[in-house]
Amino acid sequence: WQLGCFDYLLGDIALAVWDADNKRLTLARSPNCLKPLFVYRGVDFVAFASMPGALLVLADIPRRLDMEKAAAIAAGLADLDSKTVFAGVRSVRHGEAIELAERGDRVVKLWDLDSIAPSTLKTSELADAMQAELERAVAAQLRRRSGIIACHLSSGRDSSASADGSAAPSGSSAARSMIRTMPRLKRSSRS
Questions:
Q1: How many whole angstroms separate alpha carbon 85 and alpha carbon 164?
Q2: How far apart are the C-alpha atoms of 75 and 71, rounded to whole Å?
Q3: What are phi and psi of 6, to 5 degrees?
Q4: pLDDT digits (tens, 9 = 90+) for 126-154
C-alpha cells in the first residue's frame, strides 16, 4: 500500500517507515492528525521526533532560530510552508508525507480537496452525513468500546461535538439529549 495506507487507516496517525530496499525514510501525517512530527536533515543523517525540542538535544543539530519564520509568525502571516522557528527543522504538515532518500526529498500530498466532486445532496442530507462522519471519527478515537465515557467540556465546539458524538456508539439517546439541552451558565457579576 505504501502511502496508499491512508486510504485504509482511520484515526489520528503520524508515522515513520524505513524502506530498506530503496533506502528511503517516509514520514507522514493523516489529514486531520493532531500528533506533530518534525524532521531535520543533516549532511549525513536524518533525525525526526514528535516535538522539535527532542531534535535540539542532538549535538549535530544547530540551536539557531529562523528569524524570518519567527517574524512571519509574530506578524500573523499565513503558515504556508513546513518551516519552523528552528533553523533547518521542518514539520510534516497535515495530510502530507515527506520521503527522504539519497537522491533528495519529496513532499507528497495525501489528499486533495479539489479532487472531490461537488455534492448534490440537500443541506439536511449533508448535515446527517456530517453527523455520521463525526460519530465515526469520535468512535475511532475512543479507547473503550462500551461503558461510561467521560469528556472534559471546555465550552469549545470540538469538545461539545465529541461528547455528543461519543454518546452515539453506546446508543444512549438520553445522554445525547442531556448534552444538547444543558443550559448555559450565566456568569455572576461581582459588585
A1: 37
A2: 6
A3: -70, -15
A4: 988 888 888 877 777 776 667 776 666 66
Residue that the C-alpha cell 501525517 belongs to: 29
Do residues 174 and 159 make contact, with C-beta atoms less than 8 angstroms apart? no
- For 185, the grid coordinates are 451558565
Q: DSSP letters of 53-90?
A: HHHHTSTTS---B-HHHHHHHHTT----SSB-SBTTEE
Residue 14 Cα to chain centre, angstroms: 8
DSSP letters along 142-173, please? -S-SSS-------SSHHHHHHHHHHHHHHT-H
Q: How far apart are CA 169 and CA 127, in angstroms?
A: 18
9-24 tens-digit pLDDT? 777 889 999 999 999 9
**Length of the chain in residues, anyone?**
191
